[in-house]
Amino acid sequence: MSVSAFWVKWLLRIYPPLFFQRIWVQSLSADFKQARVKINKSLITSNYNNSIFGGTIFSATDPFYPVMVHQVFIKKGYNVLVWSKSSQILFVKPGNTDLFFEAILDDAHISEIEHIINTEGKHTYFFDIEIKNKAGEVCAAVTNEVYIRNLNFLAPEDGK
């Protein structure tokens, strides 16, 4: 279902797994190619060492690329299935302040994915995200593997 970026931004803001971990969508572009996200450091999100829980950081990155890819392709007229297949995180330094990241889909990503789902029917794509503190220092690096399937793809018949 195609929806406006305004509504998706607000739905993600109040979505309980993000809301209760104090993850706030600051902006989502109308074309779904850029999202800015803030992870608020608070009593609820702080661990024993007074830094943001690793699980909070990790879960903050989970929904954005699948939602963005899905909406971009729905708006292009595709019937697609998109979901997070796997993720990997590297904690670089403690998140002792609020943390920030951007999820960006550029035209090269979109063109590559479109070509592959039109020729092979499905694809997994890896997106990298750097989570930074207020000073702009990288605190964590996440790689999200996103699965995309073109539900209208018809494989060519073998030898016919």
UniProtKB/TrEMBL annotation:
Q: Which InterPro entries match?
A: DUF4442, HotDog_dom_sf
Q: Name one Pfam family in it.
A: DUF4442
What is this protein called in UniProt?
A: DUF4442 domain-containing protein
- Please give the organism: Mucilaginibacter ginkgonis
